[in-house]
Amino acid sequence: MGGLGPVRGESAVSGPARRRRRGAQPKVVALGGGMGLSASLAALRRITGDLTAVVTVADDGGSSGRLREELGVLPPGDLRKALAALCGDDDWGQTWARVIQHRFSSQGEMHGHAVGNLLIVALWEQLGDHVSALDLVGRLLGAQGRVLPMSAVPLELQALVKGHDPARPHDVDTVRGQATVALTPGEVQEVHLVPSDPPAVPEAVEAVLDADWVVLGPGSWFSSVIPHLLVPELLDALTETKARRVLSLNLAPQPGETDGFSPQRHLEVLARHAPKLALDVVLADQAAVPDRESLVDAAKRFGASVELAPVARTDGSPKHDPERLAAAYDRIFRMHGRIGPWR
Length: 343
Known about the structure:
Blueprint: H1 4-12, H2 16-20, E1 28-32, H3 34-44, E2 51-55, H4 62-71, H5 77-85, H6 91-101, H7 115-127, H8 130-141, E3 146-149, E4 156-162, E5 172-176, H9 178-182, E6 187-194, H10 202-210, E7 213-216, H11 221-225, H12 232-240, E8 244-248, H13 263-273, E9 281-285, H14 292-300, E10 305-309, H15 322-335
Parallel strand pairs: 1-2, 1-7, 2-3, 7-8, 8-9, 9-10
Antiparallel strand pairs: 4-5, 4-6
């Protein structure tokens, strides 16, 4: 069965990616977690077959949190979502995407567990290696890219939050756990990881250093995007890489975590956590930017230009449309020069 995956993944690629497959194609690394990273991957797999996802591993809620607490493993949920996003559009890919995303519904302990989470953890226990197990799952699914955890140790996200307790709106408290931080009613000031200097997965560092383009975001800003910048080896790689770097902004503030944030405010908190980080392009949906001049000024601090494009779904929901986002990424890759020989 493992031998079928790559064959089906190859045949499912269409459009620009299929044309580029005749020669070299851009090496793209996407960093993030949750549904934001999934949206980016669903777009990027349409324009390149050389794609690596580097996924945050600080989740402590739901099925992932239960498996993490019981078995001491990395939280598999965001890794599963990334693999599902890389599945092809053919029957094989879409069937497996639905299977690994399927959650059991019962009155017992299996309630809420995702099939893909159990599969990933089972292979971790069988193989004793995070990367090899994820590669094997990817081959089974025919995933059009590779999925890597950003660190091989489970991480705890902690945040300094102003007004976490509504009765003390001016006090700053330490809030622990990704699930709690994501829903905090207060204003997140900064976040950090425990342990504070977690080791990066070597393959993730290598992928960033070898990339032509690195895409950061969209996603939960404090719990999915910024954590990558808090892993010292990964931040060093993002700083040293010759790749060009794209920051993809969210379509709307996230209730709790970034409530009330303007697009430029997202850049300001990113700079506060990684002041040495440079960017080449900041991508945003034109309808989500009420003050373009302020966003341009904020992007200049990173050395970046701003690209506005219609990347949201047309139904009015604050979700990225894979085809429109793919078109925006492809245009950026074409317009902003090349680092690799894919053209």
